[in-house]
């Protein structure tokens, strides 16, 4: 069984031969580093799909290395749109900064009784492990590096519907620029999420809440701009 890994020093894929048996990608990477090539660099953490540390791209699709089962001929590469530190290890700091720009947290806290139904309503969004898979899968970053992105907008939606947040409009205001209206709604982020979160739907809900709070879709405004007006 062969595994092709993109090596940063040579900017090319290097092929490794492994024993034919069922194994996770993370185990395979550890085996290669221990027995074949000590210079191979990757990241790992909990080994249980909880921390999101080991996310990579396999055959062009985002996967958690600790959960993905290796197939013969797989091609493994680092996440998209992240500075590569070495091989499969990337710098995630720029992606995490989107959470700050989107102000995705409770601001003006007010006392509120949360029911079990309230907790279930945002349970899925709260399960985000910041693996950056959705960030890597998002095609908007190819043309808009400052886009807030899926996990920041999902987090913003999570707090915009929190009963304890008194200033929902403040959260919505912060996701208008390079944010909620710039998403193409392609759904790649939803397909990439290992926790079953649906950022596409969350962004659509944020758009609806934005309209209700007085914001408008700038795309529609641009389309309507310059249209002839008729006076009677």
What composes the largest sheet?
Answer: 5 strands, mixed
CATH topology of the largest domain: Fumarate Reductase Iron-sulfur Protein, Chain B, domain 2
Distance between the termini: 76 Å
Radius of gyration computed on alpha carbons = 21 Å
Q: Could you say what the CATH architecture of the largest domain is?
A: Orthogonal Bundle
Shape: elongated
The level-1 CATH class of the largest domain? Mainly Alpha
Strand arrangement within the widest β-sheet reads 2-1-5-3-4
- Which stretches are poorly predicted, pLDDT < 50 over at least 5 residues? none
* Helical content band: 25-40%
Structural domain tally: 2
Number of helices in the DSSP assignment: 10
Instruction: Provide the structure class.
Output: alpha+beta
CATH homologous superfamily annotation of the largest domain: Alpha-helical ferredoxin
User: Which oligomeric state applies?
Assistant: single chain
Give the SSE order as H and E letters.
EEHEEEEEHHHHHHHHH
The strand count comes to 7
Q: What would you say this structure looks like, in words?
A:
Helix content is about 35%, strand content about 10%. The protein has ten helices and seven strands. It folds into two domains: about 1-90, Ubiquitin-like (UB roll) (Roll), CATH 3.10.20.30; about 95-220, Alpha-helical ferredoxin (Fumarate Reductase Iron-sulfur Protein, Chain B, domain 2), CATH 1.10.1060. The protein has helices at about 25-35, 95-100, 115-120, 125, 135, 150-160, 170-175, 190, 200-210, 220-225, and strands at about 1-5, 10-15, 55-60, 60-65, 75, 85, 90. With about 230 residues, it is α+β, with helices and mostly antiparallel strands. The chain is elongated. Helix 2 packs parallel to helix 6 (about 150-160) and helix 6 (about 150-160) crosses helix 9. The strands form two sheets. It has a five-stranded mixed sheet with strand order 2-1-5-3-4. It has a two-stranded antiparallel sheet with strand order 6-7. Strand 1 (about 1-5) and strand 2 form a beta hairpin.
């Amino acid at each position: 069984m062969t595994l092709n890994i993109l090596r940063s020093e040579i900017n090319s894929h290097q092929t490794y031969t492994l024993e034919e048996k069922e194994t996770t990608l993370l185990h395979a990477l550890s085996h290669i580093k221990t027995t074949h090539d000590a210079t191979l660099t990757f990241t790992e953490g909990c080994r249980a799909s909880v921390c999101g540390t080991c996310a990579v791209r396999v055959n062009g699709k985002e996967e958690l290395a600790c959960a993905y089962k290796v197939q013969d001929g797989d091609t493994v590469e680092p996440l998209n749109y992240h500075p590569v530190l070495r091989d499969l290890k990337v710098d995630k700091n720029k992606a995490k900064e989107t959470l700050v720009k989107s102000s995705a947290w409770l601001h003006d806290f007010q006392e509120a009784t949360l029911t079990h139904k309230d907790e279930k309503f945002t349970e899925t969004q709260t399960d985000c492990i910041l693996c950056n898979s959705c960030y890597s899968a998002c095609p908007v970053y190819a043309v808009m590096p400052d886009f807030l992105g899926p996990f920041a907008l999902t987090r913003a939606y999570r707090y915009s519907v929190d009963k304890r947040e008194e200033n929902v409009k403040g959260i919505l205001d912060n996701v208008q620029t390079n944010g909620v209206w710039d998403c193409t709604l392609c759904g790649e982020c939803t397909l990439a999420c290992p926790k079953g979160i649906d950022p596409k739907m969350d962004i659509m809900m944020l758009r609806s809440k934005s309209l209700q709070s007085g914001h408008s879709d700038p795309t529609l405004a641009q389309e309507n701009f310059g249209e002839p007006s008729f006076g009677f």
